[in-house]
Write a structure and sequence with these properties.
Layout: H1 8-19, H2 25-32, H3 36-46, H4 64-75, H5 80-87, H6 91-100, H7 112-124, H8 130-133, H9 135-146, H10 151-161, H11 172-180
Helix pairs in contact: 1-2, 2-3, 4-7, 5-6, 10-11
Organism: Georgenia thermotolerans
Protein name: IS30 family transposase
InterPro entries: IS30-like_HTH (IPR025246), Transposase-Integrase (IPR051917), Transposase_IS30-like (IPR053392)
């Protein structure tokens, strides 16, 4: 049976302690929560070079490697809490993934490749715009746009006006998309006139009009030169 991956949070803490400088093998082992012998084995296996990204995992989606590790650990009869501790994830996250991707009529209750395929498919599905599903946030954004605020200003101000309400958060890019992409029921169709540009379509950054591209300002044609 394949051997599960080692305890990732412990390795991450060990390498962080080493990178901080002024360390001993004992202090690094203590930071990783392992014995001196285990720390020496990790160092030898890695050839003295850190094999991990030292930052903590971010985002809700599991990586392909994490899904592979879950499959191996479930095959070894590990529970959700054990797997969560090994991957540095919350037990509830692992429990949801196990329940969502359980394979019917299969000896192993979790199959990594099927889980990844389902995750990719969910990511591709069109999602309702956030402003279309949050009336309070939509009303706030519409009011600020009519007052002449830019999407960047609105996105920043939301954190000041609603410091404890995570539902009142939206990126300025999402506001632009809701203004320019019609048919999603997010904002009123006339709000593009409230933007400082007044345009009904967004111009990509760095793109100049075709007629001006490659021209020299105040250029004098050869036929007009003395």
């Amino acid at each position: 049976m394949p051997r599960p991956m080692v305890w990732v949070p412990g390795r991450r803490a060990l390498w962080r302690a080493m990178r901080a400088g002024d360390w001993t093998i004992e202090s690094a082992a203590a930071a990783g929560g392992v014995s001196k012998a285990c720390a020496c084995r990790w160092l030898a296996e890695a050839g003295g070079v850190c094999p991990l990204i030292l930052g903590e995992p971010t985002g809700r989606r599991l990586s392909v490697h994490e899904r592979d590790d879950i499959a191996v650990r479930r095959a070894a009869s590990e529970g959700a809490r054990q797997i969560a501790r090994a991957l540095g994830r919350s037990p509830s996250t692992i429990s949801r993934r196990l329940a969502r991707n359980r394979a019917a009529r299969h000896p192993h209750p979790y199959r990594a490749h099927l889980a990844q395929a389902k995750a990719d498919e969910r990511a591709r599905r069109p999602k309702a715009a956030k402003l279309a599903t949050n009336p309070a946030l939509r009303a706030y954004v519409e009011a600020k746009l009519r007052q002449g605020w830019s999407p960047q200003q609105i996105a920043r101000r939301l954190r000041t006006d609603f410091p404890d309400d995570e539902s009142m958060r939206i990126s300025y890019e999402a506001i632009y998309q809701s203004v320019f992409v019609q048919g999603r029921g997010a904002l009123r169709k006339d709000l593009h006139t409230c933007l400082r540009t007044g345009r009904a379509a967004r111009r990509p950054r760095g793109r100049r009009p075709t007629a001006q591209r490659g021209q020299i300002p105040d250029m004098v044609l050869i036929s007009d030169r003395p």
